Structure formats: C-alpha cells, structure tokens
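Thread: "does anyone have the structure for this chain?"

Original post by V.I.:
We have the sequence but no experimental structure in hand. Need at least a predicted one for the grant figures.
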Amino acid sequence: QVQLVESGGGLVQAGGSLRLSCVASGRTFSSYAMAWFRQGQGKEREFVAAINWSGGSTSYTGSVKGRFTISRDNAKNTMYLQMNSLKPEDTAVYYCARSGSGRTRKMTDYDYWGPGTQVTVSS
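Reply from O.Q.:
Generated one for you, tokens below.
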C-alpha cells in the first residue's frame, strides 16, 4: 500500500514563496511519475505540475509556468513543489498524486493521493 503525505503549506502574502513536500511510503517511488494538483474552494480539482520517474521531464499548467518548479529526490522518496511569486488565485488545497500511466495531466491516471495541504495567499 502506498501512502503520500504533503507538508509545507501555510499562509503567505502575495509575492511570497512556499515549498511543498510530498513524502511517499514504499520502495517503488522512483518507478512512477508524480504530480501536484490543487483545488480551490468551490472549484474543481485541477492539474498543476507533473514529473516523470527520473525527474528529467516535467510539465506545468500555464498559470504557474515560470513561477512554480516541480522536482523529486528518489533517494528520499520525496517530491517537491517550489512556489514563487505567489498570487491570491493560487490559494487552494494542494495534493500530490502518483501516476499509474506516466507523466500525464489527467486526474484519472493517478491512483494514489495524499490528504492535501492548504496554501493561502493573502493580497
């Protein structure tokens, strides 16, 4: 059984930075693509960024490109999301997820999810 746990969320002013972490249990972390999704209050969950198994290939949704950086450390079973130049519209619960189908943007391709961490950006 795989467990994912996010951390690093919090309250930050617009223009600030946060780094989210996602720690995975189990020995197979390095074999799978991973991603970050987010869900604002009253909104649908949306794709933020994804990374392939080695960390050599990444993708981002347009609204965070140039501001967010996804990375992973397979030796630590950990994935990260560095978020810079945060905006109030980035306020959401951020979820990490493990893909069963490579580096995709489709939620249905992700089979394990963490409980989420709240990010709040004040104006």
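V.I.: this helps a lot. The chain is about 0% helix and 50% strand.
O.Q.: and The longest strand covers residues 92-99.
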